[in-house]
């Protein structure tokens, strides 16, 4: 039997990792804002997704009841939206196969999304800006006066030297690579500049590493939960992700061993220092166990230390040694770090630390991407890296105060919510009692808060009642945030999903 192209399109959408309803909700974004009845706003949002190519001809939409449950609206709202879209000839009903995007629709070749990914909403908010929402999509802080001082030094002292060559440094500005190498060496991890590749943020570092390590049908073992933007990098390289659960000491050892034995992965990806989103600091014992397993089964380790130094205790910098230190020569270990959390994400300075031959392969891909990161930004970073411990300590002190403030607000206003105080990082990983966080996220949007539900960070379904709440906002914003969350929670608890169904005159 010949399979029509339409059937391929159906599979593409139906096999989304989050399920059709939750996956579709993530495409719609802040669809409830603006005037008009909800059913018409939902119809407009679905039609926009078709125009932009996020939904394509033949994609099967969720049943009315399923989508209503995920969006926290009545079934009548979804029925009204689907009726509206049928009138516009955007969707069609097929006997035995449900509601689908009309075959007559024409959309762009690509909307730029990673299929099956979970970071689309986060990146779209960066593109659109927060608007009137309090967005919890980005857990990053503003830059400090140290950046200004470093920039002034560069402009007054270093510009002649910087302008003395063409400005292309695919491996990174030599003075910055030396500074990063000296930073690691001072912390007990002997490193030379040839083991460092400077990248445009940690995200690009993950991209070039994925290009080096991942071939077609490769497998990557990851923690569950994990940060969706990082997972989407591996998905974009067509890798299969094998999630392994975590406990209070990091990735679970027995489950990790089973995953390594069964899947023989090309890479093990972990965030040992203040894991995102849980804030867990992997214990020293667990680090040794992870390295031993990686050595036994010959699996390279990709260590993401984006939150290095960002602990919430008074001795936050006294964290266990990086996995790269524990691994020594036994395991091929690659480490990613950046200035994004401890200093400022706007510098877009990250780096890879690894074996010289791996760095060389990464540098070739970096050169193909952009010929090298901006030189002035790197010169500023070179003045900041020697102060990285001090800057991380100062940033952590502010984070500690705001974390305490957010916890107190939540205990007062939402006492049935539960969380484990993070060891570090910039967010609380909050458990909602008996509530799907995707549903709550829809109600929160109507109260002016954009939350990131746990389903985007763990497609196994293990954290569907969790959400991440950053404490990077100021005190007044945190207070307003908790007030809005409280109103959304009260609506859900007292009344359940509410909306305005379309009015249909009876004639």
Automatic annotation (TrEMBL):
A GO term, aspect molecular function: DNA binding
Alphabetic keyword roster: Aminotransferase, Antibiotic biosynthesis, DNA-binding, Pyridoxal phosphate, Transcription, Transcription regulation, Transferase
Family: In the C-terminal section; belongs to the class-I pyridoxal-phosphate-dependent aminotransferase family.
Domain HTH gntR-type per the UniProt entry, residue ranges: 36-104
SMART domains: HTH_GNTR
GO process annotations (BP): antibiotic biosynthetic process
InterPro entries per UniProt: Aminotransferase_I/II_large, HTH_trans_reg/aminotransferase, PyrdxlP-dep_Trfase, PyrdxlP-dep_Trfase_major, PyrdxlP-dep_Trfase_small, Tscrpt_reg_HTH_GntR, WH-like_DNA-bd_sf, WH_DNA-bd_sf
Protein's name in the database: DNA-binding transcriptional regulator, MocR family, contains an aminotransferase domain
PANTHER family, A to Z: HTH-TYPE TRANSCRIPTIONAL REGULATORY PROTEIN GABR
